[in-house]
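Thread title: Can someone regenerate the structure for this chain?

I was given the following input by a collaborator and told the matching structure tokens would be attached. They weren't. Posting the sequence so someone can regenerate them.
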Amino acid sequence: MYRNALASILFLGASGVAHAGEKPLYQPVPDWVRLAPEPAATGLTDDAPAMVIGDVQARIADGQSWTYYERATRLASILAVSQAGTINLEWHPAHGDLIVHGVDILRGGKRIDALKGKSFTVLRREQGLDEMKFDGRLTATLAVEGLQVGDVLDLRYSVTMRDPALGGNAVIVGPVVAEPIKVGFVRTRLLWPTGQAVKWKTYPVGAEPQVRDAGGWHELVFKLPVARQPEMPARMPGRFARPPIAEATTFADWQSVSKAMAPLYRVDGLIAPGSALAAEVAKIAAAEKDPRKRTAAALALVQGKVRYLFRGMDNGNYVPQTPAETWTTKYGDCKAKTLLLLAILRELGIEAEPATANLANGDLVAERLASPAAFNHVFVLARVGGQLLWLDGTGTGTRLEDIDDVLPFDWVLPLRAEGAGLLQVPARAPVRATGATVFDIDLTGGIDVPAPFEMKVTTRGAAEGGLKALMGLRSKESLLDMFRNLVPAFGQDMLLTGSDVSFDEASGTATIALSGILNRSWRYQDGRFRLDAAAPIAYQIPDRTRANWKDIPIATGNPMRTSNAMRVRLPEMGGYVLEGDAALDATLPGGKRVVRRATLAGGLLSIDTEDAQTGAEIAPAEIPAARAKLAELNNRVLRVRTLPGAPGPWRGVEAAKRAGKYDKVLARYAAYIAEKPEDVSRYLARARFLAKIFERQKALADFDKAIGMQATAATYRERAALHRALGHKAESLADLRAAQELDPGNTGTLYALASELAKLGRLDEALALLQPRIDEEGENQPDLLAAKGAALGHARDAAGALAALDAAIAKRPGNAGFLNGRCWIKGTLDVQLDTALKDCTRAIELGSGGAAAAALDSRALVYFRMRRFEEALADINAALEQRPAAANSLFLRGLILRRTGDAKAGDAALAEAELLFPQVNEDFARYGIKP
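Best answer:
Regenerated them for you:
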């Protein structure tokens, strides 16, 4: 912000200034200006700043402001020459002049007049039309000829302004830039007649000017740049901002500003009897007797029948056009809409007055000097039944239900003939939700597979109006990208496959209907599947630990209210339980209240949440309590879980297929692919879904299509795993070879390829892949040794396998994976079982999570070999507690159960294992282990 301040004022001139003629004037620099040093005097070395001079001098006299600018730019490169070669100066064509004093090229210690025989060309360019602004500014442009690298381009010009709407008052503003900006000479100088009542203020830390009176003028000169400004914290109230400016005003106080601007909004006689506008007012009067309903109808008329278009022409930026003109043209800016609404309310007998606000930072208004420059918006304050109503004609979709809502302006200034002081906007949440979401996900096909979802998002107010505008500007694909962000981030696998938008004029709402496919993330722990059902409470409480931040409150944002309804239909898995706060009603410091109700009945999980925010601040003293309260609430996470011993969700897949539970998902995948058949990722998404529901042959067809369009190492690896599960050994091997060719550095592919070759009896080829890498003695040599051991184990070479693992462990003695690998080889080959137990036990002690589960599985196999079935069963059950879908563990559990006489349970476990990985039986048979 500080770095841009000087450039914005020097290069663009003063915003809102006006021009008494249609062409620039060409005059010498006025006598009151104190000239900057010659640019050459600043020492133009190679490391000299690009901006050699940045000089702003402004004065107030006789109700007029005059601002003088000089900018001298060093053109150190051809890019700088290109950028600086066209000068554009803007001004407003109603109340002031653009005066050009000189455009010079400094080269070799000489000044070359770039204006000799030339003049600026005047253009009318409405640069703000895309933001619905038509302000009538003119642009004077000049293409400077003959510029060269190494030149200095020196521009001097002035802008004057006198606005009758300000009642003889004037305002001047200059930049106060701070380090680390780099400028050769930079100055801001403000002047006014000695003895004139002028107030001034500057905001950056350390910006203390030199003050003197000379020649009848009071003068402030700021020595710039000031020291680097202190870093400010996130989410601080706007009043703590330090705009990089100095300003001066002849307005004595806010009452003076209020008085000066109030006459602009007199409404007497502005609606002519018998006019079209009078007829509209009469309709409201006849239809509604209740003052609140009349007020709401008047606001709806102005918001709905008059489009917004900023106009700053003719009488300048402060004078609104008449209601008759606004109604005839059906457009107007905030001034025009406010005057129209005031006139209508007057005819309807509603007490109302205009008020000004700042849309960007209303909280800073109370800290600024009293002047119209503190504001950029005007609206209506109405009193109905003792209630103050905040009415913005430029808003959209406000209805009777919303009439009590406040506007997020912090501080405003009512405009009254007798004058008024600043009025603080109360902190109050909206009556009606500004956004309402209904989210429905159907998990009846299984908790571990992508599921269809439907979602409706209803918005009102500015969001509704903005969406209506976007519908005509954005492509369908662009809108889908925007809508995708509305879907809760429950999982990475989310596809948006359909959308529709509708508008309800009666309620002033827009509804976005979305449909797609989503994968919820369930966790398995303690024999139960768990789902985090509600998102953590979102409330930003940023850092205030620095000493100079400790007294700065936290701004919580604009008032808002949202509602969210979630419906999750669950599959039959033996029952569910809710954990956490099913009924939550929490209020946090800063005016935030969250109310949540959750129920679980008949396989339907329902969660309804309302989040309201008043916009109040969190005071410094409240910050610790706010943090503690938020942590406490988010620690009580709402979850749904299965009962102990719930069956694995894969068990229900075949029944779900028979019941048509996946038809909707498959139809959406088909439509998704048909919409963009050249998109490889769409075939892969369906392939992964088909693999999850054990339609592996169909999944292969999608993988084939994707690889045919765009082959990658990752896709080859995925297809290889699918071929492996189906027993397609040659195809799996071919895919792994293709993956290695595309990504030879991927060790995972190398290990898988060596393993497959060994299983096929091609041990020499496997070792030929691994041994050269082992001999390199690189960082991953221990992993390669472990892979070699696994390959030798598949070939039933116990001595060679164990020697390779011994070598790997010698290099990394505490590696749980290597210890488990050695235990597994001993168990599968039925050798050295006593030491195998020690290896596995040590791996369990060293490992965690999946590594510990794998070691438990290996120890269970060793106990199985030793016919210690009770211990084997305990270990395999513990392994399945952490990895319930591990086919190897399920298969081994089935073997153990059959050996201990529980054939029914054993057969069920064996069937589960073969469902998850059809080749599991063959893998164990290689070691002589069969049911």
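Confidence is low (pLDDT under 50) at residues 1-20, 126-133, 312-316.
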